Amino acid sequence: PASGKTHLATIWASRAGARSLSARGLARADVPALVAAGAVVVEDAERHGLDEATLFHLINLAHERDAYLLITANRAPSELGITTPDLLSRLRRMPLVSISPPDDALIKALFVKLFVDRQLVVDTTLVEYLCLRTERSFSAVRAIVERLDREALAQGRRLSRPMAAKILGWTPEA
Fold first, then answer.
1. Distance, CA of 117 to CA of 132 (rounded, Å)
2. Fewer Cβ within 10 Å of end Cβ, the chain: N or C?
């Protein structure tokens, strides 16, 4: 979550002239028109409400008509709970790209970007402090920045290391 899958899929869809839709919104009657566009993006395949038969039909028709298909999900195909064996087989044969958890450098850059996006001025020591204490996920960094922003606004003060420690419930270092 929050890793940029939708952003990357949007860029790809724009360049490929693809039609985009949520997996939940995928309807069998729409499949021929989607494939006729030549490229299709199906987002959030891990969400409940996925019609397996329709996705199976879409994959087969896209293959038959040499259309491009991009499917996004938070998990690998084998972890999606797909119960249709032929669909699972086709998903497993598709090229798979994963976004790895961020390393320290990316965590720091993400903190800086998200603070700048919110027009928050922070010291580099605060970014270092947060980086050492944050779960290595895009969504965790986003949640911390949102929480710190709300508190700084509520208190009418600039963010600092002691404020962050108190807000996040981290005990201050000795």
1. 22
2. C
Max Cα–Cα distance, the chain, nearest Å: 65
Residue-wise pLDDT for 83-108, tens only, equals 999 999 999 999 999 988 899 999 99
Q: What is the pTM of this model?
A: 0.77
Q: Quick one: tokens of 160? A: 């600092």
Looking from the CA of 119 toward its CB, the CA atoms found within 13 Å total 1
The string of DSSP letters for 49-105 reads: T--HHHHHHHHHHHHHTT-EEEE--SS-GGGTT---HHHHHHHHHS-----PPP-HH
In tens, the pLDDT along 33-70 reads 999 999 999 999 998 778 999 999 999 999 999 999 99
Side chain identity at residue 113, one-letter code: K
